Amino acid sequence: MMDQAAEVAQARISQLFDPTTNQWKNAEKMSEERSSHTLIALKSGKILAIGGYGYTGYLDTSELYDSTTGQWSSSTKLSTPRSSHTATLLNSGQVLIAGGEHQGF
Questions:
Q1: Mean pLDDT in the chain?
Q2: What's the pLDDT score for residue 2?
Q3: Residue 92 lies in a domain
Q4: How far apart are CA 96 and CA 105, in angstroms?
Q5: Domains identified in the chain, total number
Q6: Which residues of the chain, if any, have pLDDT below 70?
Q7: Nearest to 29, CA basis, from 71, 83, 77, 62
């Protein structure tokens, strides 16, 4: 059984799949541990990780993955912390999130 510190470290791990080699490899760790979050590919090619549940509870944070640099960077905060929500990329390039869970919902 993993201790709490090991579980937190696992929740930051990200991996890349290479379909040409059929292999997974470790990518840069996310800035913050998160589970029950959403990921969405933006028109820019970056990947947006939104909300979720972390070591401190429901998250109001988001971060961007840039595949050209292989790095995660912090993005803007949500107005309401949430996990298990949906995320949809709109034609305008905006991202709509809806539903999910939050303390008190």
A1: 89
A2: 46
A3: yes
A4: 19
A5: 1
A6: 1-10, 104-105
A7: 71
In this prediction the pTM is 0.85
Q: Give the N- to C-terminal CA distance of the chain in Å, as an integer.
A: 32
Task: State which residues form the domain around 92.
Answer: 31-98
Q: Which two tokens stand for residue 88?
A: 């949809």
Phi, psi of 45 (to 5 degrees): 95, -10
Classify residue 55: in a domain, yes or no. yes
Contacts of 16 (CB under 8 A, 6+ apart): 24, 25, 26, 27
Strands (E), the chain: 14-18, 23-27, 38-41, 47-50, 53-54, 57-58, 62-66, 71-74, 86-89, 95-98
Query: Measured between alpha carbons, how far is residue 17 from residues 22, 42, 48 in Å?
Result: 7, 19, 17
- Tell me the three state secondary structure of residue 51: coil
